Amino acid sequence: MQFADIAVNLGDGMFQGKYHGKQRHPGDLPAVLERAREAGVTRQLLTGTSLRESRIVLKYAQQYNFHSTAGCHPTSTTEIDKHAGGEDAYFGELEELISTDRGEGGSKRIISIGEVGLDYDRLKFAPRETQLKHLPRLLLLSKKFGLPLFLHDRHPEAHADLVRILKEVGFGPDWPGGVAHSFTGTIDEMKELVDMGLYIGINGCSLKTQENVDVVKAIPLDRLLLETDAPWCSVTTSHASYKHLPKDLVVVEKVKPEKFVEGKGVKGRNEPAEVVVIAHIVASIRGEPLEKVASAAFDNTMRLFYPGEVKNLKESPLW
């Protein structure tokens, strides 16, 4: 089986052994990536959450033969107004990063616009007005560059605003699609996004409550994507989905940060290899074979993010 992890924060300091600004152990990124390869994770999409992070993950994508997103997370949108040259300069630099990579002679590692969207759960980082102000321009980068959207949709009111603005900017069949990543909304919200032609990304944060579990059951298989959001969003014993995790499944053997051992993972830090854990849980929740879920999610990933590489996949129209 092959697995694709569509959300990896490879630029996070945890992979360099840093937690809350403190060095707890040596960086072990090469070992993390090797564990992912051994687990069958052949595709990783690295998440750009700001102009700076988009630059960082692009370099990692080039170095390790992955791909990345470029955008500005809703909780980071205050940096657009604080940019030395203002909003136009910020967008100018972001567009230059994308166009240089996508243009002639570029590495063509940036394959999605994101992370962009709305988050009303963490307004202390960016007021609602700031998020709403910049969202249309961020969304329109998808159509400008012909790249699918990597969306953040957190909070019922944020969902309503996101859907409204997507429609206002003209999102439709002539756009390259997208995914609502780390989805935590309701069944009705999920169906609304699917009806718009979007995919739904599931990780540990999508599996906390019984309502989350019910949503996972209802996602059409041809709209399902899997992710870790590493190093975040691990599945824990408090999650309603935990009972669906096979008791003998150990994808990454882990120790505490202060007892770090070369070749082992770290407790409390999610890894891209653990998308296999998400696949097992989702398959159990849905009552479907692991191979069926893993294959469908991988094929969906290829259709959305790697359409030029799709070969011998059953046609699955977006609209």
From TrEMBL:
Superkingdom of this protein's organism: Eukaryota
InterPro entries membership: DNase_TatD-rel_CS (IPR018228), Metal_Hydrolase (IPR032466), TatD-like (IPR001130), TatD-type_Hydrolase (IPR050891)
Protein name: Mg-dependent DNase
GO molecular function, one term: metal ion binding
Statement: the UniProt record of this protein carries the keyword Metal-binding: yes
Residues that hold a divalent metal cation 2 according to the record: H152, H181
Protein's gene: pi038
Record's GO cellular component terms: cytosol
